What does this fold into?
Amino acid sequence: MVCVNAAQQTMAAWRPVVSYFLKDYRLLLFDFPGQGRAQIISGSALVGLDEQVEVLYRVLSAQNAPGKSIVAGASWGGVVVAVFASRYPRLVDKIILASFGIRISEKLVQAIREGQQVNGNATGEHVADVIIKYFGQHLNEAFKKKLYDQFRNIKREHLANFRAHGQLLETAKHIDEVVDLHSIKAQTLIINGEMDTVMDLNDITLAATQIANCVVKIVPGVGHFLHNESDDVLSIYKAFLALPSEPQLSMV
It folds into this structure.
């Protein structure tokens, strides 16, 4: 099982998943260039979508896995996973698209613009304030502290990458611009929180109709950070992964 980070999240965001599935799966986690401990050796601070998909391909290919893999992505990581699954269907058995959306909501645009306003000369704590305000209202205090600690120590070049990513999101308004969902052949779980304020739940039904083999789950009382907010999300992951690896009818 490969876990793909959201924008400027690190491998640590998958800690609950690792603890829950460690005995049952071989787990692969990594940071994209410009995230966590990963450095950008040369080139732009913006690591674009195509480059992230290529990084995922190379990371997975280096493992020499004997069969197809499970690939899970959270938020922007879900977009990376969707593109990856559409381009490399032979490598993918099941995918999990967590906190997934097919277009940029007005709420997310507000968050991006507010983040950009403070990001030019802001501290990491200012950026963390914006993230919690728009994305993390339902996080417990312990996780909020971890998030503040992460951004308090974030490198300036990683902040630049985060700002560039926001500019990319603002210009790419619809996922159809970057991936043909109809081309995804893997069994797919789209899972979002009922209380997520930046993803449009109505869009999820539309996305599910474009993926041939798709299960949709909306989790009551949970926001954007899903498995970091509720252990119930982990049980939903487990139930989906237990489905036979064969075509299933779409369920919404």
About this structure: The chain has one domain: 2-241. Residues 3 and 14 are 7 Å apart (CA to CA).
